[in-house]
Amino acid sequence: MFSLRYNLVMKSKSYKFRCYPNKTQQKQLLQYFGSKRFAWNACLAWRSDWYKTFSESVNGIDFSRELTWLKKLESHQWLKKVPSTVLVQGLFDQDKAFNRFFNEGAGYPKFKTRHQQQSIRFQLDQRVVMNNYRAGKLLKLTGLGELKVRWSRIPNGIPKMVSLSQDAAGRYFVAMAIEEEIAVLPPTRQTVGIDLGILKCMTLSSGLVIENPRHLNKRKDQLKKLQQRLARQKKGSNRRAKTKLRIGKLHARTADCRREYLHQVTTRIVNDNQVIMVENLNVKGMTSSSSGTIEKPGKRVKQKAGLNRSIADVSFSEIVRQLEYKCDWFGRTLVKVDRFFPSSKLCSCCGHKMDELRLDVREWTCPKCKSVHDRDVNAAMNIHDEGLRLLAPVGTKGPQLRDSGGEGVHPMAVSPRSSDQP
Questions:
Q1: pLDDT tier at 42 (50, 70, 90 boundaries)?
Q2: Is 195 helix (H, G, I), strand (E, B) or coil?
Q3: Are 29 and 157 a contacting pair, CB within 8 Å?
Q4: pLDDT band at 298 (very low <50, low <70, confident <90, very high)
C-alpha cells in the first residue's frame, strides 16, 4: 500500500495510558503520594527559612541529606517504606520550579495538598529493564509490582522514567517519554492563517470555519447543581467527598472531549498545510480577573468572568501547543504573528486600516475599496499575509523553515518583537 509519509526523524514522544491498580496498590500509592508531598513541603519550608536566615540558596540535593537523617528518626520510619526514587524525583521537580522562578518569571513554588492532582515518578533501571517493562505487555514499578495497563498504543522504545498520576476523577494514569522515529509528511504548497475566537473556535484564511462545540457550556447546568449541593454539605463528610468526586468526573469528561476535538482539528490542519500562521496571544492577560480591589473595585466583573470562562473553554494555549509539537514532528513550520498586529482592522484587499472597530461588528465595509469583509475571515487572511511577510528570502539570518523532504532548510526571519515572546 502506498504511504504518503516517507521520511523518518528521531523525536521525543510522550505516551499516556490508563492504569488500574488493585486495592493493595492503591493503598501503597496513597502512602507514596503523601510521602512525596511531605518531602516537597518540608524541603520548600527549609529552603525558604534558610534563605531568610542566612541569605543563601540551597537546593534539593542539600535537603536529600536532611531526608536521609530524618529516615533514621523513629518518628519518620514510614519514609523507609517509600522508594527513594519517588522522593528524589520530587526534589528534582522542586529544583526545576525554582529555576523557572528565578530565570523564567514563574511564580514562587507553592506547598502541595492532598486535594490537588497527585503524581510521582519512578526511574527504570536500564540494566534490568526487560524484567520490568515490555511494551504492550508488562510494566512493573518499584514497590508496586506489576500494574494493569490499558495499552491503547504500543511504544517503539524503552523509557527511562515512568510517571504515575491520579486526577480529580480518581483515575490513574502512567506516562512515559520515548525517543522514537516519526514519519515526516511530504511537502505541500498549501499555507494557512488561523484566527482564534470564541464564537468560532478557528477561522482559516481559506474561509473554512471550525465551530466551537462549547464543551463546558453543555454541562453547565449539571455542574451548577453539583456545586450548589457541595456548598451545602458539611466539610469532611462522606456525602461531600462523593459530590466532589462527581464534580471531578464531570470536569474530566469535559476536558477529554475538548482535548479529543482539538487533536482532530489540529491534525487535519497540519496534514493539509506546509506553513501555518497563528497569533501569539497573551492568554493569561486575556483571562485576568477584573474584580479590582476594595479601594478601586472593578467594573462588569460578572460579564468578564463569563468571558474568561469562554476563553478557557476554547483553550487557545492548547491549540497552539498542539500545533507546535505536531509541526515539529511532521516537518511543518509554525509562524507566530505579533499579538499587537491589527489583523481585524486591516483591509485584506487594499491594506487600509480602520481607526476603530468594535467587537460587536462582525461584518464591515472598507471605506477605501468598498470591499465587504467578514471580521474573522479578514483577520485570518491578514494573519496569513503577515506570516508570509515574516518568511525571509534565502540567505538571510533567522530561524529555519523546515523542509519536510529532509534535503535542507530555508531561512525564516521573525520580527524582533515577536521572536522575544514565547
A1: very high
A2: strand
A3: no
A4: confident
**CA pair distance 44, 180, nearest whole angstrom:** 36
| pLDDT 10s digits, 379-420 | 999 999 999 988 855 555 444 455 444 333 333 433 333 333
Output the nine-digit C-alpha cell for 192: 494557512
| 3-state class (DSSP) for residue 196 | strand
* 338 is known as an active-site residue: no
Q: Which of 279, 313, 338, 386 is catalytic?
A: 279
The active-site residue, picked from 93, 179, 180, 195, is: 195
Q: Which of 318, 376, 407, 420 is catalytic?
A: 376
Rg (the chain; Cα; Å): 25
Phi, psi (degrees; rounded to nearest 5) at 295: -70, -35
Per DSSP (E only), the strands in 267-345 are: 275-279, 333-337
pLDDT in tens, 102-124: 999 899 999 999 988 999 999 99
Task: In whole angstroms, give the CA distance from residue 298 to residue 304.
Answer: 10
User: Catalytic residue at 62?
Assistant: no
* 321 DSSP assignment: H
Q: Grid coordinates in use for 27?
A: 493503598
DSSP one-letter code for 199? S
- For 331-406, where are the alpha helices, taking DSSP H only? 375-390
User: Residue 363 is inside which H or E element, if any?
Assistant: strand 363-365
* pLDDT band per the 50, 70, 90 thresholds, residue 6: low
Which residues are CB-contacts of 288 (< 8 A; sequence separation ≥ 6)?
308
Chain Cα centroid distance, residue 58: 29
In whole angstroms, how far apart are CA 393 and each of 15, 24, 152, 390, 410? 38, 63, 44, 9, 8
Render the burial of 358-378: b for 16+ CB within 10 Å, e for the rest. Answer: eeeeeebebeeeeeebebbbb
